[in-house]
Design brief:
By secondary structure, the chain is of the alpha+beta class. Helices cover 19% and strands 31% of the residues. Helix 9 links the parallel strand 23 and strand 24.
């Protein structure tokens, strides 16, 4: 759990989306070809980790790598950071594709995340700057051939003498099943114990599933509600994949959040989904209990109670349901033509076109994102704009058709964007300032037209820029207005500018944007990534697109839009 950022956010209670690659697998099967994989979900935990901190325990994070042919490692996924423990049980789950005919080597590396990085999103952490605890490796087939599909591996570290124990990591695999059943619940508590001296407790719930072997696996946690002994949390959505059967026992624990990661237990409740449904129907509260510190078989009944204010079953369609039924993702791009990029004729310019074919930062972002999205757009005609540039004998424009055609903003394919970009560098003078408002308004206009005509389209605007936006408040106002439309905005920062102000636009801290009139954004539609922070770690496309299926689903569900079949 990340302090204040990830630590106070909800995890796993939103019916999370499947990976985009599922659509590729479905396409192959629909055409009569063999599918790509059998889908497995991996859970990770660790025991007795070597403690690298002096005044507290380690703050561990695990990173999974795939070992490719030739031995090269490719990062696959990361867990959240769990604070102040040497026995972490990570909530984040990973979907991996099991292929019988190949040996799929996995490498698990565990790091202690240092305090200065606790407010940095996990995806942006540079593992080379963290303390390496140890690693272990195995083949995926070694896990699935175990009776309980669980394998414990000892951690190794070449720089530590062989006699020192580094701890172990346990990997559990479950075969996923395509269930659309989900339950939505609103939890409320009353009369919780106050653990704080100068204020009230800051409670959150953690829900775990009890496995057949008795192991307790966390499946979600709510957000933290500050200073409240009678909290009401945002709705929690649990899929059948998460909770198993309706009779499967669940453990619900209520904690008082502490920044040091040592959260104090306010009470526990054990029951099934069926029990929670019954509580909701009868409008009754269930008393929390706390295990006795002396006799663990004895339970102390507490005053605090758990209520289920809402319980509803629903069909929870996933990203693949929409894509495979005919919904499309429409790609749009806007490129920064301000003077701070440098003269395109010189090699130190961010817009320099290398004669030997090496892509500049703008080209890398266009190709990286465009090559993924283009498969979900049937006509492959992409609107493309320049902003901050001045045409010959003209004035500065903040939304100019990249192809130079005043009547048509679309180009054909990624090649069309690349060639129009090269041509625009010859036809436009770099100017300024850096304004996002006009291009976001144009993208919102196209999205609104599609929405009003009930087209099965969702729009993705890629903005590539080298500097901090000048019209920050107007940009926020525009994003808030657009948050109710079928639109996501991906922003890539290139070059060496200080992009800290830009992080305001990306609501990764859980706080929705607010316009100058006080209106809150309906949802988070922006993902911002400085390119320098992902180079060499994971691809720019992965960093930008990982939140997209979730944003897509949030829009469809909020509007009650169902797949086309």
């Amino acid at each position: 759990m990340e302090i204040d950022r990830g630590g106070k956010e909800a995890v796993g209670g939103d019916g999370a989306a499947q990976r985009v690659n599922d659509a590729v697998d479905h396409f192959l099967q629909s055409k009569g070809f063999r599918g790509l994989y059998t889908s497995l979900e991996l859970s990770l935990s660790a025991s007795d980790l070597r403690d690298l901190d002096i005044f507290s325990k380690s703050d561990p994070m695990a990173v999974i790598y795939l070992k490719k042919k030739g031995g090269a490692l490719e990062e696959f996924a990361r867990t959240e950071v769990v604070m102040n423990t040497v026995n972490p049980v990570w909530i984040t789950k990973f979907t991996i594709n099991y292929e019988f005919e190949t040996v799929q080597q996995l490498v698990f590396r565990v790091y202690d995340v240092d305090s200065p990085y606790h407010n940095v999103p996990v995806k942006m952490l540079k593992v080379g700057e963290q303390d390496f605890i140890g690693e272990a490796s195995c083949a995926l087939s070694e896990i699935v051939t175990r009776r309980d599909c669980s394998l414990t591996l000892s951690l190794q570290n070449p720089s530590v003498s062989s006699g020192q124990r580094l701890g172990s990591i346990t990997v559990r695999a479950e075969e996923t099943f395509v269930s659309r059943v989900a339950v939505e619940m609103i939890f409320r508590c009353i009369d919780l114990e106050n653990k704080d001296i100068f204020s009230k407790s800051d409670p959150f719930l953690r829900i775990s599933k009890v496995m057949e072997d008795g192991m307790v696996v966390p499946i979600c946690k709510t957000e933290v509600i500050d200073n409240n002994l009678n909290p009401v949390w945002k709705p929690v959505v649990l899929t059948a994949q998460q909770y198993g059967s309706k009779e499967n026992p669940l453990v619900i624990e209520c904690f008082d959040f502490n920044k040091n990661g040592v959260h104090e237990l306010l009470g526990k409740f054990q029951g099934s989904i069926a029990d929670l449904d019954k509580l909701s129907q009868q409008k009754l509260g269930a008393n929390f209990y706390r295990p006795s510190s002396v006799n663990h078989d004895h339970q102390k009944i507490l005053k605090g109670q758990l209520f289920v204010d809402k319980f509803s079953e629903k069909i929870q369609h996933n990203f693949l349901d929409y894509i495979s039924s005919g919904f499309e993702l429409n790609f749009m791009v806007a490129i920064d033509f301000t003077a701070s990029n440098g003269n395109p004729r010189f090699p130190d310019s961010l817009h320099y076109i290398d004669p030997f074919g090496r892509l500049n930062a703008y080209q890398q972002a266009i190709v990286g994102v465009g090559e993924v999205i283009q498969f979900y757009d049937s006509d492959k005609r992409f609107p493309a704009w320049a902003f901050g540039g001045r045409p010959a004998n003209g004035t500065v424009s903040h939304c100019l058709n990249l192809n130079g055609n005043p009547r048509e903003c679309e180009v054909v394919g990624i090649e069309g964007i690349m060639s129009s970009y090269s041509m625009a560098l010859h036809n436009l003078s770099l100017a300024g300032p850096t304004l996002f408002g006009p291009v976001i308004n144009k993208a919102a206009e196209l999205s609104a037209q599609s929405s009003s005509s009930y087209q099965n389209k969702y729009f993705i605007l890629l903005i590539i820029t080298d500097g901090v936006v000048t019209d920050i408040q107007e940009t926020i106002n525009t994003i808030v207005r657009a948050s109710d439309l079928p639109l996501s905005i991906l922003i890539v920062g290139v070059g060496g500018a200080d992009f800290k102000q830009m992080e305001i636009l990306d609501s990764d801290n859980g706080k929705r944007l607010q316009s100058s009139t006080g209106r809150l954004a309906t949802r988070d539609i922006v993902q911002f990534v400085p390119m320098r922070d992902v180079a060499g770690e994971i691809s720019i496309a992965q960093s930008l697109l990982e939140e997209l299926p979730g944003q897509f689903l949030e829009y469809m569900r909020s509007k009650g839009i169902k797949p086309l079949y």
